[in-house]
Amino acid sequence: MEYNKKITAFSHLLVWFVLFSMPYVLSYGQEQELTRVIAHFWIPLVFYAIIFYVNYFLFIDRFLFEKKMLEFIGVNIILLVLLLWLREGIDTNFFADLARKPHKEGDNNGPSFKMFIYVQLLSYMAPLIFAIAIKTTQQWVKTEAESKEAANYKLKTELQHLHYQLQPHFFFNSLNNIYSLVDISPEEAKKSIHSLSKLMRYMLYETNLEKVPISKEIEFMKKYIELMKLRVSEKTKVNYHFPTINTGITVAPLLFISLIENAFKHGISARSENLIDIEMKLDNDIVVFKIENDNFPKKVADKSGSGIGLQNLEKRLQLLYPNKYQFKHELIDDRFLVTLIIETG
User: What SUPFAM superfamilies does the record point to (predicted)?
Assistant: First the structure.
């Protein structure tokens, strides 16, 4: 902020330096009479500067932006009249020999007094209009910046809410799975609790960043799949293929886990054989994630999972990767297919 103020002040000084130097720049190589330069160039520029900065720092903020148009016009008329009177007094008392005296009406040898006043008013309107233009532009830029800042804050807040919403959802679903193992296989239940602690440690301490390496997400998904495999019967076969090369790609954390959860929730049955296929491919900065499973819809009374995972995923994708993702799911021959493509670059 301080740097921007210095740049603005330097820009103003540079502009006025150029304007005050114009008489010598335009008449390069020719001798200039200092008295004439002062009378015809520098004094008008001082008056222009007065009009500009009085409006720039005072009148525009106090009246124009407060929608007090009549007051704004009134104070500027008073200022212009005062400057016209002052200009006439300076010309008469200090530059009588140089000043172009306005002729009285009826004198055909020069411009009328009304024409002189009209020309002076027009010249004084230029800095006024320029001050309004600059101040309005600055106000618009400031408003846009504040609007973007508010939008970014809202986005971060919403993403944080979705992130915190996903953690207990994941935790409770995993606990339900472990609970089902307690009576069947206490040893497997112990292993599951240990694995769950590692997964929760990752979720709590390593996913607070906007982006994480894809390799960490892959490791997290592998551990979760192995945890879920402990509770399924031999009738369920789970295949998964993840890239083994570290490409340096980063993604928003916990994007794919909801799809894997969904496959284990709706894709297994204790009464029939079933297959879950999970595959991820990396192509430059594009991540392609596919998952396919049998379809065994839960009963209406079954509230496990509460359906929050996929809703959470779609909302996060909209916020994190607008126009940079494709999310498609379809049911083909009792097989549920999901494809998620994300452009991470």
Answer: ATPase domain of HSP90 chaperone/DNA topoisomerase II/histidine kinase (SSF55874)
